[in-house]
Structure prediction request, 300 residues.
Amino acid sequence: MFISQGSKHPNFWLREAALLILCILSGTVLAGIISQFVVYITKVDLNLVNFDFLSDSHRYSLAWKYRLLLSINHLCIFILPAIAYFYFTKYDFNILNGSVQKFNAQSAIIAVLILLAIYPIVAFSSEVNQSIALPTVLKTMEDQTNRIVKLLLWDKSVLAFIANITIIGILPAIGEELLFRGCIQSLLGKWLRKPELAIWVTAILFSAMHFQFEGFLPRMILGVALGYLFFWSGNILYPIFAHLFNNAMQVIIYHFYSDKLGDIDQLAASKISLPALLISVLILFLSVRWFKLSLHQSHS
Prediction:
């Protein structure tokens, strides 16, 4: 996946990094302009922090406005900057297009199994994360983000479910993987010539850019897993598929089991035992070996 580029002058990588940052900043500015236009047209009140007192019709309307704003952000901040970077750098699309022929269902399922295997590790990291006190401003941001997510998932209609799967599942999986793994991890890996370091640095950036610091460590670990899936396979479709599964499962659980969320929250809040962690590590080790073997068989 990471091709040695020792002949490249250091300034080359600085230009590459500057171009990627410019693409991201341009996309962010574009997202801001379009979002402000949408806010002006729809008259949505972004300062509203409590949705509980709203009528059902008002809450329904507000949720669709937020879905539109989130779609704009995913498209402009993640997907378009990645595509622009690929275009301007004449990116080696072999890892995005040519290697699609190597994508196979068995390896994709094993990739999901790898993600499932790290959930106990993720849960343990969440316990550690929760023990870290956040500044009030970060806590406020976290609470507002959670309120918006609950607002989107409040509507149980089929149309809202499809929209939520698209906006919370599909768009972030495609956009974030293209940008973080396809662009940032690839650039860092070829620049530093240390793939593992690139994976971890990218995972840290991936988690930090969500601005949800109560889940910083769990999201970072998920980012590491997605980074290794990309590194082992050289195919961006595997982390996209695993990322999509992770996001979609959260939407599905909330949509169909919201009346039992108290039980689910209690289960999630339970302490992870040492045997569970050891079993998780064992399953993870076996799944990784199986994934690599499946990739080798599909390439031969």
